[in-house]
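Now for a typical sample entry:
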Amino acid sequence: MAYDGLMDDVRTVAALGVPSRVPVLALSEEFDVRWYGRGTYEEIVLDADKLAACTVAAIREFGYDWAWLQVDDCIEFEPLGVGTAGSGNILRATRDYLPATRETLDGLTMPDPHSAGRMPILLDAIRQVRAELDDTVCVTGRTAGPFSSTALLYGLEETMMLIYTDPELLRATNDFFIELQTAWGLAQLEAGAHALWVGDCNAMSNLLSLEHYSEFAFEPCRRMLAAYREAGLLSLFHGSEEKLPYIEKQCELGADVLSVGPGVDIAAAKAATAGKCALMGNLDPIAVLELASPDEVAAEAERIVTIGKEGGGYLFDTGEMVPRDAPEANVRAMVAAAREHGGYPS
């Protein structure tokens, strides 16, 4: 549950220290909206008052140590002209991408986070949650890594082809998104966010060789994260990565905490990141949280948090989004077990 000193614990973890206890997080927004039961996902996230109220209610009900205001991956791309699809309880996704040309890039206008599309809705929700809960939870907004942003502008296939057909356009578009995502992140900081969830799943090992990741995705993201750090904004980086060489490379990004996907063993991930960067993760939200029994969920949460907390530098979290239809009893069992076994000797 929310507690005084939570942000001290998060910053201690980011500095690879030992907190008073392990903060317990969950990528739970879709599940929380279903539990809240006062509108579809689209209805909740299109209204800042409803989004803030749902977020605060879920924190008080389930005891998360953060407010994860993710919404969807489309917010900053719609003002650029990218089409999106989604309605009811189906989260919006990008479609109708822009042509991957220099003319497209030259014609882009930097959106104003305070007036463009749905961006002000998220800023207002962040403002309300921070006013209600202050530093007793880690209020967390969201941005995307530059490479993933480029893929959400041009489409994944076209972006991958640019590696071979026009690498300079790829680099230039990444540079555009360093500027855009930095401004978007700083606007969330101004609104009251302590941290940003930085998604870069289009740059993971399932899509890019390590050589291409290092050449095209790594440096733009490192520069963006450096800008967040300079402004005093914590970054929680998530590429849903499960391969250790990539995880080790991501440790060099300069993120405050590195999130790993559910398919990597937490002990191996902890060993790969030890002394390099803080780690968060990685309970499986489908095989465990949605499909297992409460006792099995509790046992897995205990296993993960016990391994992860060793030596500090660790936040407990799910490895990916909690399914909308995950049983409430399982979510409660996960939080309770992680809380019970996430303490340190006094």
